[in-house]
Amino acid sequence: MALTKADMVERLYDELGLNKREAKDIVEMFFDEVRSALAQGEEVKLSGFGNFQLRDKSERPGRNPKTGLVIPVSARRVVTFRAGQKLKSLVEGYEPTETN
Amino acid sequence: MTKSELIELLAQKQEHLPSRDVELAVKTILELMSDALATGERVEVRGFGSFTLHFRQPRQGRNPKTGEQVTLPGRHVPHFKPGKELRLMVNEDETKSAQ
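Output (structure tokens, whole complex):
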């Protein structure tokens, strides 16, 4: 089971009284805006949740795991997520149970 | 971009909604994701990425002040894996300038 955008829309509709259209728009726009900020090279800091940061990686030698051939992995920019203190403490005590 | 800047941006694009509602919606989305992770549930947003928990094994640590050995229990930490679309989007500038 996983939380999806559809679940979020449903909860905004149930809990905040937004209509379905508004709830859907807000959820879509939330992720779109975070993504475009990152695409423009801007880091995103959501206090209480975490920070999305950008790291520039230089080119490195890589291998095709099937053929063993050495091919360079090109320089690239990647997104990393650093969870905030609040989220970290929320999840650190999670204990899986057999029903999960 | 901070949370309040994100709220402002969304409020500008959703003019028919009071900004108080937009603020509440953003906080609720973040809460829903945090609560899901707190119960071990994954968060999956197509084109953006997914959040899961990773387990960190128990280990021997030291109190940096006293040097005393302490056993740190295993714990879960949040992990984010960017989705394909997000991965491509943050790389776009580089690929263009390289061509």
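The mean pLDDT of chain A is 94.
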